Amino acid sequence: MNGGCYLVAWATLCLVGGWATSWHVGRPFTAVWNVPTARCQTHFGQPLLLEPFGIVHNQAQRFRGQNITIFYKNQFGLYPYLGPRGVLHHGGIPQAVPLHKHLALVTSQISGLMHKGFRGLAVLDWEEWHPLWNRNWGPRRIYRKASWAWAQQRWPDLPHKLQGFEARATFEGAARALMEGTLQLAQALRPRGLWGFYRFPLCRSPWRGRHNYTGKCQMADKASNDRLRWLWEASTALFPSIYLPPGLPQVYRKSYARHRLEEASRVARFGHPHPLPVMAYTRLTHLGSGRFLSQNDLIQTIGVSVALGVEGVVLWGDLSFSSSGEQCKLLQSYLSNILGPYLSNVTKAAQACSQQLCHGNGRCARQEPNNDDVFLHLEPASAVGAPREDPDKWTHFRCLCYPGWAGTACKVPVPGTE
Q: Which positions are catalytic?
Protein backbone atom coordinates (compact mmCIF):
# COMPACT_ATOMS: atom_id res chain seq x y z
CA MET A 1 0.00 0.00 0.00
CA ASN A 2 1.22 3.48 -0.75
CA GLY A 3 1.79 5.90 2.08
CA GLY A 4 -0.92 8.40 2.87
CA CYS A 5 -3.56 9.56 5.30
CA TYR A 6 -7.12 8.33 5.62
CA LEU A 7 -10.12 9.76 7.41
CA VAL A 8 -11.60 6.90 9.41
CA ALA A 9 -14.72 7.94 11.32
CA TRP A 10 -13.20 9.80 14.25
CA ALA A 11 -9.51 10.08 13.44
CA THR A 12 -7.12 10.82 10.63
CA LEU A 13 -4.69 7.94 10.24
CA CYS A 14 -1.41 8.14 8.39
CA LEU A 15 0.15 4.98 7.03
CA VAL A 16 3.87 4.52 6.69
CA GLY A 17 4.92 4.93 3.08
CA GLY A 18 6.07 1.94 1.07
CA TRP A 19 5.52 -1.75 1.65
CA ALA A 20 5.30 -3.58 4.94
CA THR A 21 8.49 -5.52 5.42
CA SER A 22 8.26 -8.91 7.07
CA TRP A 23 9.80 -12.35 7.24
CA HIS A 24 8.28 -13.21 3.85
CA VAL A 25 10.50 -10.79 1.92
CA GLY A 26 13.19 -12.67 0.01
CA ARG A 27 11.71 -16.09 0.76
CA PRO A 28 10.22 -17.74 -2.32
CA PHE A 29 7.88 -19.90 -0.25
CA THR A 30 6.88 -19.96 3.42
CA ALA A 31 4.71 -22.38 5.40
CA VAL A 32 3.15 -20.87 8.53
CA TRP A 33 1.79 -22.89 11.46
CA ASN A 34 -1.65 -21.71 12.61
CA VAL A 35 -2.48 -24.64 14.90
CA PRO A 36 -2.81 -24.22 18.70
CA THR A 37 -0.38 -26.98 19.68
CA ALA A 38 1.28 -25.34 22.70
CA ARG A 39 -0.53 -27.87 24.94
CA CYS A 40 1.46 -30.74 23.44
CA GLN A 41 4.49 -29.36 25.30
CA THR A 42 2.90 -27.72 28.35
CA HIS A 43 0.29 -30.38 29.19
CA PHE A 44 1.64 -33.61 27.72
CA GLY A 45 5.40 -33.10 27.53
CA GLN A 46 5.44 -33.90 23.83
CA PRO A 47 6.78 -30.92 21.87
CA LEU A 48 6.14 -30.80 18.15
CA LEU A 49 9.30 -30.38 16.11
CA LEU A 50 8.57 -27.78 13.42
CA GLU A 51 11.99 -26.19 12.93
CA PRO A 52 13.57 -29.10 10.99
CA PHE A 53 11.02 -28.58 8.25
CA GLY A 54 11.34 -24.79 8.05
CA ILE A 55 7.79 -24.14 9.29
CA VAL A 56 7.34 -20.61 10.63
CA HIS A 57 5.48 -20.57 13.96
CA ASN A 58 4.81 -18.38 16.96
CA GLN A 59 6.87 -18.63 20.12
CA ALA A 60 5.87 -21.79 22.03
CA GLN A 61 3.49 -22.58 19.13
CA ARG A 62 0.83 -20.25 20.51
CA PHE A 63 -2.17 -19.48 18.32
CA ARG A 64 -1.37 -15.77 18.48
CA GLY A 65 2.10 -14.33 18.40
CA GLN A 66 4.81 -12.53 16.51
CA ASN A 67 4.46 -14.43 13.23
CA ILE A 68 0.70 -14.91 12.89
CA THR A 69 -2.34 -13.64 14.74
CA ILE A 70 -5.92 -14.51 13.82
CA PHE A 71 -8.99 -12.69 15.12
CA TYR A 72 -12.36 -14.43 15.15
CA LYS A 73 -15.80 -12.79 15.11
CA ASN A 74 -16.10 -12.35 18.88
CA GLN A 75 -12.50 -11.28 19.47
CA PHE A 76 -12.01 -8.05 17.54
CA GLY A 77 -13.98 -4.85 17.86
CA LEU A 78 -17.78 -4.84 17.67
CA TYR A 79 -18.25 -7.22 14.77
CA PRO A 80 -22.03 -7.57 14.29
CA TYR A 81 -23.67 -10.93 13.67
CA LEU A 82 -26.85 -12.88 14.36
CA GLY A 83 -26.53 -15.82 16.70
CA PRO A 84 -28.77 -18.85 17.16
CA ARG A 85 -32.49 -18.02 17.32
CA GLY A 86 -31.77 -14.55 15.98
CA VAL A 87 -29.83 -13.26 18.99
CA LEU A 88 -28.22 -9.92 18.08
CA HIS A 89 -24.52 -9.50 18.73
CA HIS A 90 -23.40 -5.86 18.54
CA GLY A 91 -26.62 -4.93 16.78
CA GLY A 92 -26.58 -7.93 14.45
CA ILE A 93 -25.99 -6.00 11.20
CA PRO A 94 -23.29 -3.53 10.09
CA GLN A 95 -25.72 -0.57 10.01
CA ALA A 96 -26.34 -0.92 13.74
CA VAL A 97 -22.69 -0.67 14.80
CA PRO A 98 -21.36 2.70 16.05
CA LEU A 99 -18.21 2.78 13.92
CA HIS A 100 -16.32 5.09 16.25
CA LYS A 101 -16.89 2.71 19.18
CA HIS A 102 -15.82 -0.27 17.09
CA LEU A 103 -12.59 1.44 16.04
CA ALA A 104 -11.87 2.61 19.57
CA LEU A 105 -12.15 -0.97 20.81
CA VAL A 106 -9.98 -2.25 17.95
CA THR A 107 -7.34 0.32 18.91
CA SER A 108 -7.36 -0.91 22.49
CA GLN A 109 -7.23 -4.58 21.47
CA ILE A 110 -4.38 -4.13 19.02
CA SER A 111 -2.40 -2.16 21.60
CA GLY A 112 -2.94 -4.87 24.19
CA LEU A 113 -2.44 -7.95 22.03
CA MET A 114 0.15 -7.05 19.41
CA HIS A 115 3.70 -5.84 19.95
CA LYS A 116 4.44 -2.47 18.35
CA GLY A 117 6.99 -4.07 16.06
CA PHE A 118 4.62 -6.80 14.85
CA ARG A 119 5.71 -8.03 11.39
CA GLY A 120 3.64 -11.15 10.93
CA LEU A 121 0.36 -12.17 9.34
CA ALA A 122 -2.75 -10.53 10.80
CA VAL A 123 -5.88 -12.40 9.73
CA LEU A 124 -9.45 -11.25 10.34
CA ASP A 125 -11.87 -14.19 10.24
CA TRP A 126 -15.30 -12.59 9.78
CA GLU A 127 -17.48 -15.11 7.97
CA GLU A 128 -21.04 -14.45 9.16
CA TRP A 129 -22.00 -12.12 6.30
CA HIS A 130 -20.63 -10.93 2.98
CA PRO A 131 -20.19 -7.16 2.38
CA LEU A 132 -22.15 -7.35 -0.90
CA TRP A 133 -25.92 -7.64 -0.49
CA ASN A 134 -26.54 -10.23 -3.21
CA ARG A 135 -23.90 -12.60 -1.81
CA ASN A 136 -25.89 -13.08 1.38
CA TRP A 137 -27.99 -16.04 0.31
CA GLY A 138 -28.80 -19.37 1.95
CA PRO A 139 -28.08 -19.19 5.71
CA ARG A 140 -26.84 -15.60 5.30
CA ARG A 141 -30.20 -14.39 3.95
CA ILE A 142 -31.12 -13.51 7.54
CA TYR A 143 -28.87 -10.45 7.22
CA ARG A 144 -30.95 -9.17 4.33
CA LYS A 145 -34.15 -9.73 6.29
CA ALA A 146 -32.73 -8.01 9.37
CA SER A 147 -31.54 -5.08 7.23
CA TRP A 148 -34.99 -4.74 5.68
CA ALA A 149 -36.60 -4.70 9.14
CA TRP A 150 -34.06 -2.08 10.23
CA ALA A 151 -34.92 0.10 7.22
CA GLN A 152 -38.66 -0.24 7.90
CA GLN A 153 -38.13 1.02 11.43
CA ARG A 154 -35.92 3.87 10.31
CA TRP A 155 -38.07 5.00 7.36
CA PRO A 156 -41.61 3.80 8.15
CA ASP A 157 -43.23 6.22 5.68
CA LEU A 158 -41.22 5.15 2.63
CA PRO A 159 -42.81 2.87 0.03
CA HIS A 160 -41.88 -0.80 0.46
CA LYS A 161 -39.63 -0.78 -2.61
CA LEU A 162 -37.66 2.23 -1.40
CA GLN A 163 -37.26 0.65 2.02
CA GLY A 164 -35.65 -2.29 0.26
CA PHE A 165 -33.33 0.05 -1.63
CA GLU A 166 -32.30 1.75 1.62
CA ALA A 167 -31.77 -1.63 3.30
CA ARG A 168 -29.35 -2.67 0.59
CA ALA A 169 -27.54 0.67 0.31
CA THR A 170 -27.05 1.09 4.04
CA PHE A 171 -25.96 -2.52 4.52
CA GLU A 172 -23.29 -2.35 1.83
CA GLY A 173 -22.12 1.11 2.92
CA ALA A 174 -21.83 0.12 6.57
CA ALA A 175 -20.17 -3.22 5.74
CA ARG A 176 -17.56 -1.44 3.67
CA ALA A 177 -16.95 1.20 6.33
CA LEU A 178 -16.51 -1.48 8.97
CA MET A 179 -14.11 -3.69 7.00
CA GLU A 180 -12.18 -0.94 5.23
CA GLY A 181 -11.93 1.22 8.33
CA THR A 182 -10.71 -1.70 10.42
CA LEU A 183 -7.95 -2.51 7.93
CA GLN A 184 -6.83 1.11 7.62
CA LEU A 185 -6.74 1.57 11.37
CA ALA A 186 -4.89 -1.71 11.92
CA GLN A 187 -2.25 -0.77 9.35
CA ALA A 188 -1.80 2.64 10.91
CA LEU A 189 -1.21 1.04 14.30
CA ARG A 190 0.87 -1.95 13.12
CA PRO A 191 2.17 -0.93 9.68
CA ARG A 192 4.65 -3.80 9.37
CA GLY A 193 1.97 -6.47 9.70
CA LEU A 194 0.29 -8.09 6.70
CA TRP A 195 -3.43 -7.49 7.17
CA GLY A 196 -6.33 -9.13 5.36
CA PHE A 197 -9.55 -11.12 5.65
CA TYR A 198 -9.62 -14.91 5.66
CA ARG A 199 -11.45 -16.59 2.73
CA PHE A 200 -11.29 -13.54 0.46
CA PRO A 201 -11.47 -13.49 -2.49
CA LEU A 202 -14.26 -16.03 -2.83
CA CYS A 203 -14.32 -18.50 -5.71
CA ARG A 204 -17.16 -21.00 -5.99
CA SER A 205 -16.88 -23.89 -8.42
CA PRO A 206 -19.68 -26.43 -7.78
CA TRP A 207 -18.75 -29.91 -8.92
CA ARG A 208 -21.52 -32.26 -7.81
CA GLY A 209 -23.48 -33.65 -10.73
CA ARG A 210 -21.13 -32.12 -13.31
CA HIS A 211 -19.29 -34.20 -15.89
CA ASN A 212 -17.30 -31.31 -17.39
CA TYR A 213 -15.94 -29.78 -14.19
CA THR A 214 -13.14 -27.27 -14.79
CA GLY A 215 -12.67 -25.72 -11.35
CA LYS A 216 -13.17 -22.21 -12.75
CA CYS A 217 -14.66 -19.56 -10.49
CA GLN A 218 -18.22 -18.68 -11.35
CA MET A 219 -18.56 -15.45 -13.30
CA ALA A 220 -20.77 -14.04 -10.53
CA ASP A 221 -17.89 -14.49 -8.09
CA LYS A 222 -15.44 -12.70 -10.37
CA ALA A 223 -17.90 -9.85 -10.84
CA SER A 224 -18.34 -9.58 -7.06
CA ASN A 225 -14.59 -9.59 -6.56
CA ASP A 226 -14.29 -6.77 -9.07
CA ARG A 227 -16.81 -4.77 -7.01
CA LEU A 228 -14.68 -5.39 -3.92
CA ARG A 229 -11.74 -3.45 -5.31
CA TRP A 230 -11.88 -1.25 -2.21
CA LEU A 231 -11.19 -4.33 -0.04
CA TRP A 232 -8.12 -5.38 -2.02
CA GLU A 233 -6.82 -1.81 -1.99
CA ALA A 234 -7.22 -1.66 1.79
CA SER A 235 -5.51 -5.03 2.40
CA THR A 236 -1.80 -5.77 2.61
CA ALA A 237 -2.17 -9.54 2.11
CA LEU A 238 -4.77 -12.02 0.84
CA PHE A 239 -5.76 -15.22 2.62
CA PRO A 240 -7.87 -17.38 0.28
CA SER A 241 -8.97 -20.85 1.33
CA ILE A 242 -7.98 -23.96 -0.61
CA TYR A 243 -9.64 -26.41 1.78
CA LEU A 244 -10.62 -29.51 -0.17
CA PRO A 245 -14.41 -30.05 -0.06
CA PRO A 246 -15.55 -33.43 1.28
CA GLY A 247 -16.10 -35.85 -1.56
CA LEU A 248 -14.28 -33.83 -4.21
CA PRO A 249 -12.91 -36.45 -6.66
CA GLN A 250 -9.12 -36.72 -6.91
CA VAL A 251 -9.15 -35.81 -10.59
CA TYR A 252 -10.68 -32.39 -9.81
CA ARG A 253 -8.48 -31.33 -6.90
CA LYS A 254 -5.55 -29.69 -8.68
CA SER A 255 -7.81 -27.53 -10.82
CA TYR A 256 -9.98 -26.69 -7.80
CA ALA A 257 -7.04 -25.22 -5.88
CA ARG A 258 -5.47 -23.64 -8.96
CA HIS A 259 -8.47 -21.53 -9.90
CA ARG A 260 -8.89 -20.26 -6.35
CA LEU A 261 -5.26 -19.22 -6.25
CA GLU A 262 -5.40 -17.65 -9.70
CA GLU A 263 -8.39 -15.55 -8.66
CA ALA A 264 -6.49 -14.38 -5.58
CA SER A 265 -3.49 -13.49 -7.75
CA ARG A 266 -5.77 -11.58 -10.11
CA VAL A 267 -7.29 -9.30 -7.46
CA ALA A 268 -3.91 -8.96 -5.70
CA ARG A 269 -2.95 -6.53 -8.47
CA PHE A 270 -5.87 -4.17 -7.85
CA GLY A 271 -4.71 -0.77 -6.66
CA HIS A 272 -1.15 -1.74 -5.72
CA PRO A 273 2.21 -1.01 -7.38
CA HIS A 274 3.20 -4.63 -6.72
CA PRO A 275 0.80 -7.56 -6.22
CA LEU A 276 -0.25 -8.30 -2.65
CA PRO A 277 1.24 -11.37 -0.98
CA VAL A 278 -1.07 -14.39 -1.24
CA MET A 279 -1.00 -16.81 1.70
CA ALA A 280 -3.39 -19.70 1.06
CA TYR A 281 -5.13 -21.36 4.00
CA THR A 282 -4.99 -25.16 3.91
CA ARG A 283 -5.99 -27.77 6.47
CA LEU A 284 -4.04 -30.65 7.97
CA THR A 285 -7.09 -32.93 7.82
CA HIS A 286 -10.08 -33.41 5.56
CA LEU A 287 -13.23 -31.53 6.48
CA GLY A 288 -15.63 -33.66 8.48
CA SER A 289 -13.48 -36.78 8.77
CA GLY A 290 -10.36 -35.88 10.76
CA ARG A 291 -8.30 -37.90 8.27
CA PHE A 292 -4.87 -36.38 7.59
CA LEU A 293 -4.18 -35.19 4.07
CA SER A 294 -2.19 -37.75 2.10
CA GLN A 295 0.94 -36.80 0.16
CA ASN A 296 -1.17 -36.71 -2.99
CA ASP A 297 -3.55 -34.29 -1.24
CA LEU A 298 -0.57 -32.14 -0.26
CA ILE A 299 0.59 -32.05 -3.87
CA GLN A 300 -2.87 -30.93 -4.97
CA THR A 301 -2.97 -28.09 -2.44
CA ILE A 302 0.48 -27.02 -1.22
CA GLY A 303 2.21 -28.28 -4.36
CA VAL A 304 -0.13 -26.31 -6.60
CA SER A 305 0.44 -23.21 -4.43
CA VAL A 306 4.23 -23.44 -4.82
CA ALA A 307 4.00 -24.12 -8.56
CA LEU A 308 1.83 -21.04 -9.11
CA GLY A 309 4.29 -18.81 -7.27
CA VAL A 310 2.17 -17.76 -4.31
CA GLU A 311 4.08 -16.50 -1.29
CA GLY A 312 3.12 -19.36 1.00
CA VAL A 313 0.50 -21.36 2.83
CA VAL A 314 -1.02 -21.15 6.30
CA LEU A 315 -1.46 -24.58 7.89
CA TRP A 316 -4.63 -24.44 9.96
CA GLY A 317 -5.94 -26.73 12.68
CA ASP A 318 -8.05 -26.50 15.83
CA LEU A 319 -7.61 -27.48 19.48
CA SER A 320 -8.41 -31.12 18.75
CA PHE A 321 -4.82 -31.62 17.59
CA SER A 322 -3.55 -31.01 21.13
CA SER A 323 -6.49 -32.46 23.07
CA SER A 324 -4.51 -35.43 24.38
CA GLY A 325 -1.05 -36.93 24.43
CA GLU A 326 -2.17 -39.49 21.88
CA GLN A 327 -3.34 -36.77 19.49
CA CYS A 328 0.02 -35.01 19.85
CA LYS A 329 1.81 -38.27 19.01
CA LEU A 330 -0.35 -38.77 15.92
CA LEU A 331 0.33 -35.23 14.77
CA GLN A 332 4.09 -35.57 15.31
CA SER A 333 4.09 -38.82 13.35
CA TYR A 334 2.23 -37.17 10.46
CA LEU A 335 4.56 -34.18 10.61
CA SER A 336 7.71 -36.34 10.64
CA ASN A 337 6.70 -38.81 7.95
CA ILE A 338 4.46 -36.99 5.46
CA LEU A 339 3.83 -33.26 5.93
CA GLY A 340 7.30 -32.17 7.05
CA PRO A 341 9.31 -33.95 4.35
CA TYR A 342 6.99 -32.67 1.64
CA LEU A 343 7.23 -29.08 2.92
CA SER A 344 11.03 -29.37 3.05
CA ASN A 345 11.08 -30.62 -0.53
CA VAL A 346 8.95 -27.88 -2.06
CA THR A 347 10.58 -25.14 0.03
CA LYS A 348 14.06 -26.17 -1.14
CA ALA A 349 12.82 -26.54 -4.71
CA ALA A 350 11.40 -23.02 -4.60
CA GLN A 351 14.71 -21.73 -3.23
CA ALA A 352 16.73 -23.55 -5.89
CA CYS A 353 14.57 -22.26 -8.73
CA SER A 354 14.66 -18.73 -7.30
CA GLN A 355 18.46 -18.75 -7.15
CA GLN A 356 19.07 -20.38 -10.52
CA LEU A 357 16.32 -18.84 -12.63
CA CYS A 358 15.58 -15.55 -10.86
CA HIS A 359 18.98 -14.72 -9.30
CA GLY A 360 17.43 -14.85 -5.85
CA ASN A 361 15.36 -11.75 -6.63
CA GLY A 362 12.06 -13.45 -7.37
CA ARG A 363 10.03 -16.63 -7.07
CA CYS A 364 9.24 -19.16 -9.77
CA ALA A 365 5.79 -19.79 -11.23
CA ARG A 366 4.50 -22.00 -14.02
CA GLN A 367 4.82 -20.47 -17.46
CA GLU A 368 1.44 -22.00 -18.23
CA PRO A 369 -0.65 -21.89 -15.03
CA ASN A 370 -3.12 -24.47 -16.35
CA ASN A 371 -0.41 -27.09 -16.88
CA ASP A 372 -1.44 -29.20 -13.90
CA ASP A 373 1.43 -31.66 -14.39
CA VAL A 374 4.22 -29.14 -13.65
CA PHE A 375 5.43 -28.86 -10.03
CA LEU A 376 8.40 -27.51 -8.10
CA HIS A 377 9.73 -30.76 -6.65
CA LEU A 378 13.31 -31.83 -5.98
CA GLU A 379 14.53 -35.34 -6.53
CA PRO A 380 14.96 -37.14 -3.17
CA ALA A 381 18.78 -36.94 -3.25
CA SER A 382 18.71 -33.17 -3.71
CA ALA A 383 15.99 -32.66 -1.12
CA VAL A 384 18.22 -33.97 1.68
CA GLY A 385 20.90 -31.31 1.48
CA ALA A 386 21.70 -28.22 -0.54
CA PRO A 387 19.83 -28.24 -3.85
CA ARG A 388 22.03 -29.19 -6.81
CA GLU A 389 19.51 -29.20 -9.61
CA ASP A 390 20.11 -28.87 -13.34
CA PRO A 391 19.01 -25.34 -14.37
CA ASP A 392 17.20 -26.92 -17.33
CA LYS A 393 14.79 -28.36 -14.78
CA TRP A 394 13.14 -24.94 -14.57
CA THR A 395 12.27 -24.59 -18.27
CA HIS A 396 8.55 -24.75 -17.49
CA PHE A 397 8.80 -21.83 -15.05
CA ARG A 398 9.07 -18.05 -15.20
CA CYS A 399 10.08 -15.46 -12.62
CA LEU A 400 7.82 -13.29 -10.48
CA CYS A 401 10.18 -10.57 -9.29
CA TYR A 402 10.24 -9.26 -5.74
CA PRO A 403 9.56 -5.54 -5.22
CA GLY A 404 12.59 -3.61 -6.42
CA TRP A 405 13.52 -5.98 -9.26
CA ALA A 406 12.43 -6.39 -12.87
CA GLY A 407 13.25 -8.29 -16.06
CA THR A 408 12.65 -11.87 -17.14
CA ALA A 409 15.39 -13.07 -14.75
CA CYS A 410 14.85 -10.37 -12.07
CA LYS A 411 18.32 -8.89 -12.65
CA VAL A 412 17.27 -5.28 -13.25
CA PRO A 413 17.05 -3.05 -10.15
CA VAL A 414 14.03 -0.74 -10.09
CA PRO A 415 15.12 2.79 -9.10
CA GLY A 416 13.41 4.38 -6.14
CA THR A 417 12.37 1.16 -4.38
CA GLU A 418 13.64 -0.26 -1.12
A: 127
